[in-house]
Amino acid sequence: MQCVTIPRVTGVSPVLHIGSLHTVELVGGAKRTRMELAAYEPESGCDPVLVAGRSLRKDDVAKIVTSQALLRNLGYDGDPQGAVGQILLGTTRPGYTAWGSEVVGPPPPNDADQYWRFLEQRVTRFEAQIIGVMASGPTEMFMNLTNLHWGRDLNGWREWCEENDGSGNEVWTSVLVSEFERRGYETVLVMVDNVAHVQAVAGAVENLRLGTRTARDVLDNLAVATRILSLILGAIGAVSLGVATIGIVNTMVMAIYERTREIGVMRACGATRATIRCLFAFEAAVLRFLGGVLDPGMSWVLAVAGNHWLNRFAESYGVMARNAIAFPPWLTNGVVAFTTVIGLVAGLYPAVRAARLNPVEALRYK
Fold first, then answer.
1. Collapsing DSSP states into helix, strand and coil, what is residue 78?
2. What percent of the chain has pLDDT over 70?
C-alpha cells in the first residue's frame, strides 16, 4: 500500500457509521429521538472541539461525545456541562444486537400482532455515558461520536438460519455479522490546519481517485437548492403579480361605475380630464403601495422561521451559517417602488376611461 503525504493535513482518522441504531433517550428524560452515530480513532488529530466534558480515549467503552443538536432534540434545557455524565439509553433496530450474543427463536410470524412482539424481543438495548459535548464544527457533521473500539461492537446485523438440533427438530438460530468486517471503513476524516486550505487538500485527495465532501460542498448544494427555489418562487410571484394587476384594473373599473355621478359632479365643478386621470391613477398607485409595504412585512415573518430551520440544518453539518435569508434595504425599497409603479400602470386604463365620461351623462347615471 502506497503512503501519500498531503501538506496542511493535521489529522486523519477512519470513520465507521453505526447503522444499527434506532432510538435513544436520556435517563429521566421525557423525549425519544433518532440518533446518528459515527466511530472514529481518538487521539489522531481529529478530536472535536468541545464546549463541555472531555474527549474520547481509545479504550473507552459505551461512552460518547454528543452534539448540542441531539441534546436539543431530547429536550435537554440545561447547559452543556450539565449533560456530561448523563446516561443515554438506546435501542438497535429490530433484529440487531450490540453485544453479539446468539438469539434462538422461530421465524417471523405472519400475524401482525405476533410479528411486532417478535421484533420487540429482538430489539437490543444499550447504555452509553455522555462524556463530552461538541461545539459546532467540522466533526459535528457526524452528529455524535464514539471510538472505533466500541463502534465495531455496536455495528452489525443478525443473519438467521434454520438448523437441525440433532434430534430431528428444526430450530432457527442467528449469528451476528459485523458490518465492519463486511464493508470496512466507509469514510476517512481529514483535518486541515486552516479553512483556507480545505479546497486544496480536497483536490489532492481527489487526485488519489477518492471522493471528498467538505463544508463548502454543503454550502454549494444549499446555494443550488436556494437558486432553484428562488426561480420557482419567482415564477409564482410573477403569476401572482399578473393576477394582482388584473385585480387592480378590475377594482378601478368597478369604482368608475360606482362613482360615475361623482365624476360628473367633479367635471361640472370644473375638474379637467387630466385631473380625473391623475386622481384614479393615484388611487391605483396607493393600493399597490400599501400592498408593497405589507408584502415585505409578511416575508420577514416567514424569513425568521426559515432562517431558524436553515441555521439548525447548517449547524448539523458543521457549517456556521447565520440567517441565509436576508432582506437588504435596497430590495425592500425596490419592492415598494416596483409595486407602486405596477399599480400606477395598471390604473392608467381605468383613469383614461373615467376621464372620457361625458359629464352630462355621468350626472344622469343611476
1. coil
2. 75
